[in-house]
Amino acid sequence: MGLVSLDKSRILSWGTDYLIDIDWEYPGGNGADYKLIPNSARVSEITTYPLLLAAVRAAIGPKSLLTIAVPGLKRDMIAYTKATVPLIAASVDYFNASLIPHGYVADVLISIRS
Length: 114
What we know:
- The chain contains 4 helices and 3 strands.
- The chain has 114 residues and is of the alpha/beta class.
- It has one domain.
- The longest helix has 17 residues.
């Protein structure tokens, strides 16, 4: 068994489209558990995240959709570097910006109203 094991035929038998959405908050650090696990303990995620996405892509094939949620704030884009973004982009169909965490939308609305 490889890094990712998906039973594509079973999921397709349910009559659903084959879509995988990965919402990881956040590879490389600054996630919800940042007080428990420091970013220094997550450095390996910067290089392994693109490998995970490539393994998922290989498991589901090129005709299925693979989407990811990406941080809406620059400070949380630790795993999105000049070296990793091309690798990530090669595996995914869509990047979806997550603007809700950490009150980002509320901060924007407050700025607009001010």
